[in-house]
Amino acid sequence: MLLGPSLALSAVLFALGVVGVLIRRNVVVVFMCVELMLNAVNLTLVALAQLHGTSGQIMVFFVMTVAAAEAVVGLAIILAIFRHVQTVDLKQFNLLKG
Amino acid sequence: MTSFLASVGYDRWILHVLLILPLLGMPLILLSPVRAARWIALVVALLEFGLGIGLWWAFDASNPGLQFVTDLPWMEGYGVGYRVGIDGISLLMVLLSVVMMPLVVWGSWRGIDHKQRGFYTLLLAMKVGMLGVFVSMDMFLFYVFWELLLIPMYFLIGIWGSANRLYAATKFIIYTFVGSLLMLVAILWMVFQVGKATGTYSFAYTHLLDNAAVLAPWGPWLFVAFALAFAVKVPLFPFHTWLPDAHTEAPTAGSVDLAVILLKMGTYGFLRFAIPFVPAFALSKTTGLVMSGLAVIGIVYAALVAMVQPDLKRLVAYSSVSHLGFVMLGIWGSTVESVQGAILVMVSHGLSTGALFFMIGMLYERRHTRMISDFGGLARVAPLMTLAFVITAFSSIGLPGLNGFVGEFLVLIGSFGRYPILVGVATTVVVFSAAYMLWATQRVFFNRFTNPRNEGIGDLNFREIAVLTPLIAAMFWIGLYPGPLLRRTEGAAKRYIELISPHLPEATLPGPITYGAPR
Amino acid sequence: MTALTVVFGIFAIWAVVSALLCITRTNAMASALWLVSTMFALAGIYVLLQAEFIAAIQVLVYAGAVMVLFLFVIMLLNVEETPREWKRWPVWLLASGLAAVLTAELVTLRGYSPGRLAREISTMPDSMAIPAYVFPGAMGTGPDPRGVVGKIAEPLFQAYLIPFEITSVLLLAAVIGAVVLAKKRL
Amino acid sequence: MTHFVWLAILLPLLGAVANGIIAVRRPDSRRLVSFIGVGVLLGAFAVSLGVLREVAAGHGEATKLLLWQWIPVSDRLTIDLALQVDQLSAVMLMVITGVGSLIHLFSVGYMQEDPGYARYFAYLNLFVAFMLVLVLGASLPVSFIGWEGVGLCSYLLIGFWFEVDANSDAGKKAFLANRIGDFGVLIAMFMLWWHVGTLDYAALAEKAPAVLPYGGTIATTIALFLFLGCTGKSAQIPLFTWLPDAMAGPTPVSALIHAATMVTAGVFLVVRTGVIFALAPVAMEVVAITGALTAFFAATIALRQNDIKKVLAYSTVSQLGYMFLAVGTGAFAAGIFHLVTHAFFKALLFLGAGSVIHSMHHAQHHAGSHADPQDMRNMGGLRKAMPWTFILMAIATLAIAGLPPLSGFFSKDEILAAAFARGETNGLYRVAWGLGLAAALMTAYYMSRLMAMTFLGTFRGGSDVEPHLHEAPAVMTAPLAVLGILSVIGGALNLPSFVGGSHGLEHWLEPVTEPATRLMDALVMPHGSVEYALIAGAIAIAITGLVVGVRSTLRSTIPTPAEAPAETGIRRLLYGKYFIDELYQKLFVGPLVWFSRRVLWQGFDQFLVDRMAVGGTARVAQGLGWLGSRLQNGQVAFYVTLFAVGVVLILRTLVG
Description:
- The complex is a heterotetramer of chains A (98), B (519), C (186) and D (656).
- Chain B contains 23 helices and two strands.
- Chain B is mainly α and 519 residues long.
- The two termini of chain B are 31 Å apart.
- Chain C is an all-alpha fold and 186 residues long.
- Chain C has helices at 3-24, 28-48, 52-77, 89-109, 114-122, 147-157, 161-182.
- Chain C is globular and about 55 Å long.
- The interface between A and C is large, with 69 and 89 residues.
């Protein structure tokens, strides 16, 4: 039973993902850190699936699908914005500002 | 009449038909050419009137409970049902709605000259809401109808209103929404608590009422939540300031509907929901004193403020605040007499204020102003309108023999035992109401004819006479022979008193000694 | 300290170190590659956790497809290293603080032992009860008789059929969305 | 006939409706209007005669006539629309329909040329209908219909010529003053119902003595509230100021409403609810003193008025004071007696004044003069042009001054004697008696001054006007003559024993007043030498007043309004009616309007609620929104940070 250690690992990875999102300015890297967090969550699900049956793995499957879709759209958006501002610096991405 | 109605199964379908007809009319209006819009609305309104008026005979006055009851499942899992039914109190409100309906449509015949389809559609939507509020015996359904009403009213004011309409419409919607959201919370809380205690999670009014005892611990919160929603609608002092704006800016039809029906929803809510659900708190000495105190302050205050209004419509709006104060006082007077009086004031205020708004609308259509100072001496050029206005004005200030007096008299005499001082203060309004009404009448219809632009104003035309005549006839009828009305509400009022009487604190004065008057 | 634990430890350290490098490399390309490395480590852990199918698609889909997409984008943008890739130190401080607290919390959550979870689930009100197929009572270890793919396939194409189908719509939407967004002119 | 007494109400009501329709459809059908207007009144008078005969033949019991259930609200409160026919209502019926018919007849001539002729008769008929409801009502609420209804008609008729602002103002003022009184009546009704349990006159008379303790606070409060209503309707202190203004209406209206009938409703009400008053001796004292004071003060004001109708108006207020003095002493019959005789001679005076004004108006119209046709300073010497009017008004003047054997002498003497008698035991009534006596002197003075200024001496209104003066047409003088006869012989109704009479009216009214008088100390009327001394004194006072009035008026030169110097000192005070109107305006009306506008409306509604509370809430929401919009700086990283903080916090609660 690797439940405990797996959850701990997932916590660490998740936290690293958060740190990455917070400290990086390159939007692509930030996006990758989000993927890292998703992976951490996947790990949790798989670990718990050991305990509760395969539903957790199914969830992971779906998460991956969504992550793939998200990556596609997200990167497309980044491309679109890049064309607009010619930088990947998050600081310059302030289109959301009201 | 009764047997004929029974033979067609009237009591089984009437309430549903009343609710559905306007709903059918709405898409019809939207789909048909603009010219047909008002005609469709009129036909729907007349149908509603023709069918609805049968309630008067079909209603069994000797039965104090709910009648015409239907209980169909709707969202069963959540205890929500299509539950409708009426008792004596709802009966009068429903009748008032269906009677006013054709008048309102016909009264707007000329005043509305743009976006007619939208206007009449909204008018019908509002009718559904009004009728729905009064026939709903399911809290969820009630809430839906309650909110349903706000939207058309908002647009009626906001689109067809006069100069300052957006401010008024926004004020109206914010005021009323804040109140009703709290009511939603209260309703959910009630259903949850009653459900927890009885095991049946249901929005049915009767279910909640029968188990209202379990709500006692939350009495103050529930009451405040309900009271805020209803007090804004009544409007009870000091939540009244939206009313003058809404009334003043709304088109005639909006003002009339607002005065005749919408305000009554507040007082109806108190009578039907706020008090019966938590009677112990609602009728406690302190709450009673606060509520009736506010009512009396409103009565006198609004009359005084009405006196100094330069705008005719605003004046009548303030007079509404004053009149509705009587209803509130009557409700908290908590005697059969005062409650019946309150119901009667609801009806007669609808008639007289409705007629006043109609007439102000007629003046506005002619002169495009509502300022009292723009008029003067109209009696010379418009004697019929003067006659109608004077009769209505006197009905509004409670001249015995006209409708206003009976209700106010009953409210005051019925409440006197519980609140002698407050009733004394409220009674002073006979002076102030006469002051503002007569002063306004004088400055509009009497005095020297100063403004030459009023020369071509013309008297009432046939349509206007036809709109006003039923109202004025009803004023005389209720003033001289209110018996049939009172008999129909007596059962409901008595039942209400029986329901709340265990929670009533001792009256200040000893009750009147029963004394059989020699016949 | 079984062999299993040791192997797990190795993979865990690999994953953490890769992740650390991923978030600290200035070069975006390097970051991406370190992320791929993390994913491989995770795939290994999945195998240890008896999720062989997931491990496979982790490598195929994530490390393979998704990350390649990232690499393409990075190359497509072809940006020089941003003059100041790092944010100022207060951000670092805040980020580390948050990360520390978060880790601590997540690790504490681990205290949700299987027994405790089961207890809490059993005391839930009925209305919140989780359908039976979510927990088909499989607490057992050992190889599943349905095989590595079969144990995923069965629920996936039975209980979760509709969500599964919906993912296809999702993917389609993503494809269209990406095309719409990325193309200069349609 | 008693069972058809509702006809007496219905006929004028139908007349009002018919005339109202005519007024709208074809206002020029004067013949038809006169026919309907006067016809219905004569019909009502005929009904009244029949009723009177039957009541006289009956055994003194009241007949109650249920028309329909008016407000059947519960077992304990059911108000019937019922009429009560008894001796009191029969008397009132006769006065109202009798004097009313005469005044209607007079109006045919007086209003002939007015464009609102039909409207006028509609109002006047309506008034009679309401007045009859008032006196016939079997319970307070039913009477209240009439009570407010006559107020309405009074409002409409005072403001009949509505295009003059002052007339409309006067009408409104009258209605408002009446309404202040109505407030009292309403409160009294509420208290009666809660304490006695009925509003029915007959039941009240029966039950009240059993339920309300004699002299108790409750009875006193009820009686005082009722009396407040009476002061409003009958123009007593402090609510008398509306009556003089009410003279803005057509003169026959002043005669009918503001002299003969409506204003006496207060007296009627006190007699009707005599039991309540009898139970409250303090209230009785208040009634008597208020009456006496009103009689005195109104008389002082009348001394210096120049408008012929104003003099008569204040005289009416003063005479009403006498009636209240009477009922306040418990001499209910004397009050009603004076009410009847006053109706005769005051209606006569007003109608006489009306024909004078009519004549003046016509003459001035012909001569193109714009002088005030009501100002006595423009008159003088009219006796030559209008001999009939002069003679008849002179009779009325002697009657009101209290010269025997005219009607006024008997009724006034009765009142003063009753007050004197009460004074034996209660000093307050002695004061009231003194005030009454002084008022009698002044009455004689101002009436003879009026007669002298109007009819004697020479005409001051200009030589161009004088030739056009003429006697009124027969349709106007005939009613005057009838009233003149009644003024002379009216005293016969209640002849005192010293002239061989038997107090007819007093005995007639006994069934009505008995329940009340039974509760009070018996009134021991003075007799023998005291009685004769009182009578001699009264006659002496009347003659003195009359002689002084005529002589002082004729001796002084009377300036026309244009050249009249400003009054000074006490004269100015009297001429300005003690400036009570101005005082009320400054003390109540002005501040109330100011308070309503500045404090309640602009201060509370617009500033406090709208600006501060509602606007403030909106401002707070706006402020929060501004803060929120600051958060939306568009930096994704910032959002993520916030998001992370949120996650941490949420997890904290999960973990903790």
